């Protein structure tokens, strides 16, 4: 017998155990037992869960590729091609999902079928059955490792992450509305091979305990999602953020966290947070029940002034008081209603225009200029304003990024004004709409959202060194 894994006739020699890789599943090194007595190959898998449509069902599962290393977990997903009963050597039968994957051994690669089952009690994480063995493979039953040997060390490096396939994800969009933004997220996610489910936030309820926290929906426990995209309306902020906190407790990645959403919806806290991070904004004053209206106005400056309800959204509850007398009347009226409000100076040079910067994953991916309808100082698109693409300055870009970081938001719509003193941030929106900015800029913002999600939930290799066994 020569030392070559392939003889002159082109026959490949396999021992009773070989090193293989499954690149489609992001598994660069596995030790497989070769068993010609088994028909179908099998892969060790746990947390097996189906998802996707009935016409194209998928399965997701996780793998411990290294025996004895329960802390090293590689998430995988694949399309289901069959479900069949497999009988083991001890006579026990089990219904298993069947998937297909490319196998690579040395310089050779080909497609095989694999059943998914728990092999945690087995020495080999994979079994190579006779259907996976090509015609020109000869089995040397008395020896091991006739093919090139691999190493567990590959799981210590960034190479395993770089080589990982685009794993199909199961994603929930928390939304009560069938609007453009929700539809675009579903459309873009499915185009990228993911399963995206829209969940009505108010129909979620929670089991809260230390050991098994869960989120339930319509009488059933919700499945394990790879990520959650919150689209929580302002009217249900309190309950919506409670649901997001529950997902965070479970360990699900949330595109925007509960703390950031809460801070962005509380206009008083939001301005205090921006002030703490030294982010430029209009001069702002607040008091619960000032005895002297004039004193409150003097903290901000001279008329014209903006008086803004803390609960205002989409420009509602925002009033421009052009004179000192008008400002006093508006403040007195709000106070009479026992409403909480802010008073801000009016940036005249903005001329009824503001800039919306869309930040995704620490990058400004799109920006538009919004101008209010004729005679309206508010630039909200919901109030008849119109939008156009705009080129922002380095200072404006940095202001938007700093604001998103201050609120710890991975997706944020940062609204700012162009003033003589530089950009002034008006608001940080944790649930920005996609229609206006995609239409105005022609950019695929939903795609950027999924690119960020995919980068955050990609399997991360264990950095601790794995000791290579002494092989015979």
Automatic annotation (TrEMBL):
One of its GO terms (molecular function) is metal ion binding. Its cofactor is Mg(2+); Mn(2+). Keywords: ATP-binding, Ligase, Magnesium, Manganese, Metal-binding, Nucleotide-binding, Protein biosynthesis, Ribonucleoprotein, Ribosomal protein. GO terms for biological process: SOS response; translation. One of its GO terms (cellular component) is ribosome. Residues 271-454 form the ATP-grasp domain. It holds the Pfam family Zn_protease. InterPro entries: Asp_endopeptidase (IPR008503), ATP-grasp (IPR011761), ATP-grasp_RimK-type (IPR013651), ATP_grasp_subdomain_1 (IPR013815), Peptidase_aspartic_dom_sf (IPR021109), Rimk_N (IPR041107), Rp_bS6_RimK/Lys_biosynth_LsyX (IPR004666). In the C-terminal section; belongs to the RimK family. This is Probable alpha-L-glutamate ligase. The gene is rimK.
């Amino acid at each position: 017998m020569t030392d070559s894994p392939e003889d002159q006739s082109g026959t490949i020699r396999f021992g009773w155990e070989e090193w293989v890789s499954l690149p489609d599943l992001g598994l660069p090194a596995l030790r497989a037992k070769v068993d010609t007595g088994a028909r179908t190959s099998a892969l060790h898998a746990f947390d097996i869960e189906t998802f996707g449509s009935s016409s194209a069902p998928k399965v997701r599962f996780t793998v411990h590729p290294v025996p004895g290393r329960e802390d090293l977990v590689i998430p995988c997903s694949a399309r289901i091609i069959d479900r069949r009963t497999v009988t083991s050597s001890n006579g026990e039968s089990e219904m298993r999902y069947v998937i297909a994957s490319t196998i690579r051994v040395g310089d050779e690669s080909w497609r095989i079928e694999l059943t998914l089952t728990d092999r945690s009690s087995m020495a080999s994480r994979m079994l190579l059955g006779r259907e996976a063995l090509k015609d020109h493979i000869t089995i040397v039953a008395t020896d091991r490792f006739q093919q090139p040997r691999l190493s567990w060390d590959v799981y210590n490096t960034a190479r395993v992450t770089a080589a990982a396939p685009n794993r199909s994800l199961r994603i929930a969009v928390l939304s009560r509305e069938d609007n453009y933004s929700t539809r675009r997220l579903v459309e873009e996610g499915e185009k990228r091979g993911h399963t995206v489910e829209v969940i009505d936030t108010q129909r979620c309820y929670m089991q809260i305990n230390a050991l098994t926290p869960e989120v339930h929906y319509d009488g059933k426990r919700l499945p394990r999602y790879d990520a959650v995209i919150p689209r929580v309306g302002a009217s249900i902020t309190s309950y919506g953020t409670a649901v997001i906190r529950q997902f965070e407790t479970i360990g699900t990645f949330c595109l925007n966290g509960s703390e950031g959403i809460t801070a962005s919806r509380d206009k008083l806290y939001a301005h205090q947070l921006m002030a703490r991070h030294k982010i430029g904004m209009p001069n702002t004053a607040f008091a619960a029940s000032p005895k002297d209206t004039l004193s409150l106005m003097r903290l901000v400056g001279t008329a014209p002034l903006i008086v803004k309800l803390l609960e205002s959204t989409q420009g509602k509850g925002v009033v421009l008081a052009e004179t000192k007398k008008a400002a006093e009347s508006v403040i007195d009226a709000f106070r009479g209603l026992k409403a909480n409000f802010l008073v801000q100076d009016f940036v005249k040079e903005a001329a009824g225009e503001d800039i919306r910067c869309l930040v995704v994953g620490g990058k400004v991916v799109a920006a538009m200029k919004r101008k209010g309808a004729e005679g309206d100082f508010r630039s909200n698109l919901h109030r008849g304003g119109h939008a156009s693409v705009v080129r922002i300055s380095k200072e404006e870009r940095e202001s938007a990024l700093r604001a998103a970081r201050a609120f710890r938001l991975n997706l944020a719509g940062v609204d700012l004004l162009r003033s003589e003193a530089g950009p002034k941030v008006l608001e940080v929106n944790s649930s920005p709409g996609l229609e206006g900015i995609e239409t105005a800029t022609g950019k695929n913002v939903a795609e950027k959202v999924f690119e960020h999600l995919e980068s955050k939930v990609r399997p991360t290799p264990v950095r601790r060194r794995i000791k290579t066994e002494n092989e015979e």
